[in-house]
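Changelog entry: the Molybdopterin-dependent oxidoreductase record was regenerated in this release. Current contents:
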Amino acid sequence: MMETRSTCAYCGVGCGVIIQSDGRHITGVRGDPEHPANYGRLCSKGASLHLTARPEVLASRRLLTPRWREDRSLPWQASSWDGIQQRLVERLLALRAAHGPEALGFYISGQLLTEDYHAFNKLARGLWGTPHIDSNSRLCMSSAVVGYKKALGADAPPCSYEDIEQASCLFIAGSNTAWAHPILFRRIEAAKAANPALRIIVVDPRRTETAEFADLHLALRPGSDVALFQAMLHQMIWQGWIRPDFIAAHTEGFEAVRAQVQAMSPARAAQLCDLPEAQIIEAARLFAQSPATLSLYCMGLNQSSAGTDKNQALIQLHLASGQIGRPGCGPFSLTGQPNAMGGREAGGMATLLPGHRDPACPADRAEVAALWGVDSLPAGPGKTAVELFEAAEAGEIKALWIACTDPAQSLPHQALVRAALKRCELVVLQDAFSGSATAEFAHVLLPAATWGEKEGTVTNSERRISRVRAAVPPPGEARSDWQIVRDIARRLEPLLRPGKPSLFAWDGPEQAWLEHREATRGRDLDIGGLSYARLEQAPQQWPFPDGEAAGQARLYLDHRFATPSGRARFHAIGWRPPVEWPSVERPLQLSSGRLRDQWHSLSRSGTVPALFGGAPEPRLALHPDELVRQGLAEGELATVSSARGRLHVRVTADAQLGPRQAWLPMHWGSEYLLGRDEAGAALQGVNALSQDRCCPDSGQPELKYATVGLQGLALPWQVLGAAHVPDAQSELLHQALLALGREAGYACCVPVASPAPGETGWLLEAAFAQAPGADWLQSLTQALALHAPGALRYADGRRGHLRLLRLQGEGEAARLQAWLRLGEVRAGQGDGAWLDAWWREGRPVAGLGRQLLAPQAAGPSAPGSPVICQCLGVRESQIQGRLRQCQDLTPTDRLQALQSTLRCGTQCGSCLPQLRRLAQSTPTSLETSS
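Regenerated structure tokens:
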């Protein structure tokens, strides 16, 4: 077995991993104990990364050959790299001749390596001549970028992870760290255990797992963050908790802010934020008077039409109280993607140039042109993500080259995005995985290498650069992203730069990285002292200029900031309500966020059925009282509608939400959540509802807030079909179920972990206004192989009920392999629902005989329940059973009892927040008896 050190492919924590392989296939993964981001820990997603590289995934879900089609209605045609490159170059040049260079836009990804970013940027701006290159990092971190630049002068998070251990107060805003950045949350838990005096404040409308761990939870009204931060600053000024000496010596603009926040008293903010005034005052006191306050913030602040204002308002609390430039304190933005930071460094965004330069500055453009060896760069910034697709929908952008991202699922206002893709004359999709929503609109598919197959670098949230190493070669004809770009660029150069030396004379990724390094020299992010060889020894933080022995862990220790004056800047910011505000037609405030075990549009994490165990299907969460107000019951279907679109989804009660709030995970796109409206039009996923209104400073869209209406959906005919099949047949079954689900009024198609090795389960739930037709039902029966001899059958013609079952194995080993239920109510209720858990968990059915066709189980039958501990497959029902046995214990002792008996929470630790919640919510024996 071979071992290769690399990094995780998921969030911006930047965990180090050790990949195990046999030289051809990845066989395992574990945390790297020497990597300073995680010291060997991995979350549930990272610990299962090797499962995304299983041979059956490579065979069924990976894009392995270049493909082309002239018309989207035609089938894909495989091509050689040589043939597709030449064909693509000809098409691009024809578009350029007809419409000019700016008719081409690039939309790339924070999951690319820094070398890939550099290659795309140089192709777009340096060779092709278009400024229109933006990244999906626009959707996650651009407000943080502009907030840092406006306040501190540079896009440079000033803190390090080790500040968590040195802080005396943690202020977590707009981040469910426990789920979105689990390994950082392990550090927070450990810091609290080592220092019980550490105070934790969480600002979040929901009572998340992170909020439950806090000493103070500010459950503010969605969209009111600026009012809260201004009221805290008002209180700091009123009580004399600010640092006048620091403000006078190291900042500018404070007096204008002082005058502005005078009107935002805690009493007024309490009304705007729906918070007790005393909580706002206490938060201000802890923030200002703690010896060291570290703020951690993420999408709840950034994904907003006021995202930059929220970032600045928070940073100003640090500046006013002097909580910056010291160990344990400062404003620390947590990045969402593994290399969102590297993309910003390389200038791979419409509003950035390499080395934190500005495309609106002629001098900055001239510097980059000189570094690249070109005459000039396109003047000014390009179109940001939402603008790019708006321009395509308007016909201004004629072609889009998309890499390592799925805008047909992840961008807001899906109707507009899909109309834009349809209108484009050419859509190039460069990706590792096939079957994404965007692939449906592409003309060209370019197979890219992915995790475990690539060489290069990434930069995590604390400015730490790590080497990414390949453990195995890319499968099929897949190639590294930088290499794909290089090869096409080389074919373009003789026609666009005849007789001139190549801009892409690279034999490997290190040459591209060295060009990137040169763009940082003398800048705030100077990495002139780094090399691949030095990074082989250990990951390093920037800045790391020539002559230094190590990178700089913290910035602004001398309190000199990256502005022309050296002073940090206060800006007067006016609070304004979100673009949409609840109305009679749309009274609910919808937000979205991450699930603990899933990632983005599920193209990678969705290949691991076990990761669906904790949240096996899409559910719209509402407070229990809201369900009553809406006249809905747990698990019922409803139509959710906004000003932009609608979707069909089941509802669930969640007491962690406030009144009039709704929450739906961001991951559920049209590959999982399907349906058709009354007119028969296909519905998209969660982002069909989201706003495309953007922050005017950062261009980041308002993905965290939309007002929606809710109405019960009458689709009385319900079908559930499921089967475990050999891995080699999994994708065939998946595609068959998807095709059938697209014909239903509502459908959900998800993988289910099989209890037998070498198998995958798929479950389709579909609902119809009228009984499904015989042809549809026959197709489903055949897909599940329930038409073969030996299948058990129960039919009730009077009620229109049908049940088909197929068993596998004999005697004591017999288990339920496949089943279908028609006309029965939702799984978990009513006739035959008990079969679901037996199938999921592979329970033996020996001796049940005809009871398998009975409406209810004969005798006790514990229903299936969500998997809480992903590492060991421990379900909530098992945990609840153990907790009932230790009601006399304290919550802490209950948690220890769970860990000692069921061993849940003893591996990656990602489930600890949920275990803690369950242990605390179980009533004591005294409460039970009373």
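Residues 826-830, 926-930 have pLDDT under 50 and may be disordered.
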